[in-house]
Structures are given as C-alpha cells and as structure tokens.
Amino acid sequence: MGRFDGMKGLVLGVANDHSIAWAIAKIIMAEGGQIGFTHLPDRPDDERQRNRRRVALLTDPEPNAKFLVPMDVSSDDQIAGVMDRAKQEFGTIDFLLHSIAFAPLEDLKGETTNCSREGFRVAMETSAYSLLAVGRLSRSFLSKDSSILTLTYFGGEKVVPGYNIMGVCKATLDMCMRYMAFDLGPAGVRVNAVSAGPLRTLAGRGAGVDDMLGLYQHMSPMGRNITHDEVGKAGAWLLSRDSQGISGEILHVDAGYNVMGSPGRLLDLVPKQAAQE
Which of 88, 149, 160, 186 has an alpha carbon 20 to 30 Å from 209's alpha carbon atom? Predict the structure, then answer.
C-alpha cells in the first residue's frame, strides 16, 4: 500500500527532469498517486514543440501520469480549461503542486531597483498571483483533507544577491500561500510551501545556482548541499495525508542554511591574516 493509493492531483509547471516538481511527482506516482501534468506552452512557430516534448519524455512512460496539457498562467481561461480537464478525468483532486515562476531575464539580471514596470508586472503575475488563480479555480473540486503546495526560496525572506526581483516575487508568494491557507482552511484544504536550497534546475541556472552551491556547502549546519530526492520526499510528505494539521508553513529543505546568523564554518576558509585586518 502506497501513501497516495486512490489519490489524484495536479502538478503544474514541470519543465524537465531536473525540476523539483518532477522529483516530487515521481515519488507520488511511485506510491500510487495519479497525476495530471501541465507544461509551458510552446511558441506557435516551434514545430518541434520543445516544451511539451521535454515533459512528455518523462510522463509518457508513467502509467499514473493521466494527461499532459499546456497552460499559460497569465490566462484564466487556460487555467480554467486545465481544471475542467482534471474534473473530467478525476472528479475531485486530493493534491495540487504549483511550480511556476518567471521573470524577464533583463529584469532578473539587473539591480532590483532598475526592474522595469512591465518586467515587475510579468514576474509578479506569473510567480505569485498564479498561485491565487489556480487555488481559486480548483477550489470547487478539491476534496476534503486535500493539500496545495508551492515552491519558494530563501531569497523571499532575506536578500540574496543575484536573485533580485524574483526574491520580491517569492516574498509575495509566501504571503499568498499563508492567506490562501486561511481562506481554504474551513474546507479542510491545507496550503504550504517548500523552500529548497540551491539545485541545478532550469530556474536555478537563471539565478546563478553554481555560485550558491559552494556557499551553502560551507555555511549550512550539515556542511553539504541537498539533493533532488530530499526535496522530492519533503514535498510529497506535505502533499500526503501524513502531514495533516500543517498549513500555512514554509518547510526549509536546505541542510539548515536558513538558521545561520553568521558565516559559520565558512570562516575557516578565510586566511587568518585577512580576518585580523
């Protein structure tokens, strides 16, 4: 018997096999859960449908992957279409994973102060408002004791140079998650977030993950980086009924990095002469 036997849900935003959402989804399906997936829409001129193909290579061999459809979260009509498909396939759903974030590269790479008005709107709408949109449009067919999970990052709590405008979006996402937990709580729906340490994902590469891996390795209490599997297990736990009674929380899966108030063992790498100066 698997923890997810008889459970059905949606995983929104898998990009490729390095996605945290895929690490979570693999565990859910291995434990009996059935999933409908979405992917980033392909451009009309992309005859190879690269976005769909990357995700289909993962989902097609999985008997518990029940459908794969495109979804543009800037369109309520497209979100509603995905929800209608899920209702047709499953009737009700027991879990929903929101793994969607985007900022225009020119706005992400520059100083936060210099983010353009349009770049701010696009980043905030895609990365934060989309959680409210999918929560609202799935509300009518979420089962009692169901769970919604979103993916956040420590750059929404403290300044992480290079994360820039996305940190502002994650701070907003965190509060959207908490207020949604309050709104949906009376219906028995829990809403939480996982905050993972740096991983080599598509989003991580855009935020300079390689520079952060060494920092986390030396500063975290555990003295190492985390793995996709560790985040996958934590996310699956929050989406399962094993975590009933937990809502409105951010679970940090970062080898303890978030608790540090000083560089910790990183200071051991600083030459003593330089430290004295």
Answer: 149
